[in-house]
Amino acid sequence: MIKLFVSDIDGTLMDRSKQIRKEDIDAIRLAHRQGVHICLASGRMYEEIKVVMELLAVPCYAICQNGAGIVDPRGTVIQESKFSSELALDVQQKTAPADLVTVICGSEGNYVAEQTLETERVGQRFLTPLIENHDVIADMASGMPITKFSIYGEVPLLERMLDELDQQFGSRITASFSDPDGIDVMPGGVDKGAAVEALMQLLEVRRDETACIGDSFNDLAMFRICSQSFAMTHSHGAVLAKATHQAETVGQAIHDLLTV
């Protein structure tokens, strides 16, 4: 019997129009009524995940910013990770080329140093507005807590950036594609899998009582942790290959789990 079900949001539970299928909402509510803990795991910050939770109308745990934070259904922060000021400044400098858009993420908001047409375009995918802060670099140097960087641009540039980040920072960071045109950079050891594992320990749930669903490379870490993992059928082939199952929808995955 599954006791913990973890769902990615973008490209999985929520489509590009920021809509959630009624069948998925109904399936999540059914799983909750049957005693399954529901967790939403996303690169988004908690304030954005709360919007999704309100649509579901179900108490959910939240794994925020790809594992940088874990929040319980009451809104209490269980765990939070952040960059050191020195490392955050080094990563920001590395990811600041003019041909890429870098969003600097903290637990309280998502920031850009200056609003441009490109940052406004990127901002449309967020559920809360990007915050323009001309002093964000100085604030980071003064200890402003930073949990994640999201970088957007053309895929070849992002692939090159991932290689360069790995060469420069190694295990001090965790970085992967989280969108077709975006990568996320977190502190080392921070990912969705580590957060799911911490939540399992908190809830006293065994690995064979867990399942998850996602569609991107940042979901692979939780695929490794959960006994049953579902990749959305539109996922990249490398993501599909790492999942134990495939599903067209979240609702289909839940139905398969509950009818075993």
Automatic annotation (TrEMBL):
<dbReference type="InterPro" id="IPR023214">
    <property type="entry name" value="HAD_sf"/>
</dbReference>
<protein>
    <recommendedName>
        <fullName>Cof subfamily of IIB subfamily of haloacid dehalogenase superfamily/HAD-superfamily hydrolase, subfamily IIB</fullName>
    </recommendedName>
</protein>
<dbReference type="InterPro" id="IPR006379">
    <property type="entry name" value="HAD-SF_hydro_IIB"/>
</dbReference>
<dbReference type="GO" id="GO:0016791">
    <property type="term" value="F:phosphatase activity"/>
</dbReference>
<dbReference type="Pfam" id="PF08282">
    <property type="entry name" value="Hydrolase_3"/>
</dbReference>
<dbReference type="GO" id="GO:0005829">
    <property type="term" value="C:cytosol"/>
</dbReference>
<dbReference type="GO" id="GO:0000287">
    <property type="term" value="F:magnesium ion binding"/>
</dbReference>
<dbReference type="InterPro" id="IPR036412">
    <property type="entry name" value="HAD-like_sf"/>
</dbReference>
<dbReference type="InterPro" id="IPR000150">
    <property type="entry name" value="Cof"/>
</dbReference>
